[in-house]
Amino acid sequence: MANNTEKTVRVRLVKGLRGVQARHRLSVKALGLNKLNDVRELKDSPQVRGLINTVYYLVAVENQA
Questions:
Q1: I want to staple 38 with a disulfide (CB 3.0 to 4.6 A). Which of 3, 5, 26, 33 is the partner?
Q2: Whether the Cβ atoms of residue 11 and residue 33 lie closer than 8 Å to each other
Q3: Longest dimension (CA), the chain
Q4: Predicted confidence band at 1 (pLDDT cuts at 50, 70, 90)?
Q5: Residue-level pLDDT at 6
Q6: How many angstroms separate the CA atoms of 44 and 52, rounded?
Q7: Does the residue 3 lie in any domain?
């Protein structure tokens, strides 16, 4: 049986990428966000948390399940 109790985190891109460091653009792309107001539900892991912390000023964490 699969374990369906994995925690997830919803991330929304709330600020555009114009004038942002190239490294931060790559972090946003790694999160799967392309356009403004894109939302992705990702597995809550240390790697994802690190990407979110890198671009904290561009994204909003909506809810955690």
A1: 33
A2: yes
A3: 47
A4: very low
A5: 79
A6: 11
A7: no
The owner of tokens 């790697």 is: 47
Q: How many helices (H) and strands (E) does the chain have?
A: 2, 3
**Tokens 């992705």, residue located:** 40
What is the per-residue pLDDT across 21-58, written as a single tens digit (0 to 9) for each? 999 999 999 999 999 999 999 999 999 999 999 999 99
Query: Could you tell me the pTM of the whole model?
Result: 0.85
In a domain, 20, yes or no: yes
Length of the chain: 65
Q: Which two tokens stand for residue 2?
A: 């699969």
Domain that holds residue 43: 8-64
Q: Rounded to the nearest 5°, which phi and psi values hold at 45? A: -135, 165
Count of domains observed in the chain: 1
Helix (H, G, I), strand (E, B), or coil: what is residue 4? coil
